[in-house]
Amino acid sequence: MKAKQIKPGIYWVGAIDWNVRDFHGYQTPRGTTYNNFLIMDRKITLVDTVKHDFADVMFERIRCLTNPEKIQVAVCNHIEMDHAGSWDKVMSVAKNATLYCTERAKEGLERHFDTTSWDIQVVGTGDRIKLGDKTLLFIETPMLHWPDSMMTYVEEDRLLISQDAFGQHYAQAVLFDDLVPEGVLEDAVIDYYANILMPFGRLIKAKIAELQKLGLEIDMIAPDHGVIWRKNPEKVIRMYLEMAQGRAEEGVVIVYDTMWHSTERMCRAVLDGILEEGMYAEVIKLRDTPMSVAIKQFWKYRGLLVGTPTLNNLMFPTVAEFLQHLRGLRPYARIAGAFGSYGWGGGGVREALSILKSMKLEVVEPGYEVKYRPGEEDYQQGYEFGRRFAQKVREYHRRVEKEVVS
Ligand code: FEO
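That is the input. Now the predicted structure with MU-OXO-diiron docked in place:
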């Protein structure tokens, strides 16, 4: 296996994980990569490592260029184990290396590894180290997406090694953005942002503004997952800023589950009403769809309708799980409503609406409920509910877009 040059003297020495489909519960149908970089300067430098299982692959790539024992500078941008998991192996081989990381990363590394023999130097925003011809500048990015996170900027090459930010779970043999179909890449960026970075929108805006204030000219962004942005790094920055501002498409995603198909029948009526208003809509049945896909599709569109039967006076469990997941991601700038069937007491729709309100989303009430089985008159009610909801989405979308632009 070979190292791949991304800038003069800077090489990708990472690993491609074609087969991972469950990334700590996040479904990754395209697999992922663990990107890390070797800088062949007077002081040989390794920025980040790879997941532990892939350490041999990383060492094989490094050995194409040098003996790993010669690594003198180690940079740990982030301590999550998909990137930091091989530092024990690296530091046991590169005995003269100094490892640079944030204070919080040092604490984390000490909890994960026996670091008693490691030379660890804490760095913060604005600190620089000279490697020979190249200079590294560190920029802390706390909570993007862990407290320990930072980025490393190679000044002479205008290269930003951005750890998880600007990444995608996308395993391909190609390394660069211009070698991937644009739509596929955009989808992968939205997927990653929605499932990992959605809670940190405000921080993302502030951090991008800080990078701009620092006057960093960025010619290339190399994240720790997916392809490297060499043709169009501005594109992913723009996408991040827009998503951080809550930008979405005008449309509705209906996320539902069903026990005996009553809520599903209701879903058809609601969908007809939405489409009648000329609005785009998608339908996702939770038991047949990975959670991360439902989250991604939710994030793409302005409106969310949750369809849930009542089970034991509560929401159906898959719907509860979806809303629990969503709540943790702290969504914003979205409008939501709920519908569903019940047998005797009801409660599922009420609970869904209450949770949507607790997320401080714009909530359309009342929901649309049917006892037992929807009949003709219930169809009409669902159709009207769908039309009304689409109208509300359109009004809200216009309002929010104005705020985003201003
Ligand atoms: Fe890809 Fe936060 O680790």
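The pocket of MU-OXO-diiron is lined by residues 78, 80, 82-83, 145-146, 164, 224-225 (CB under 6 Å).
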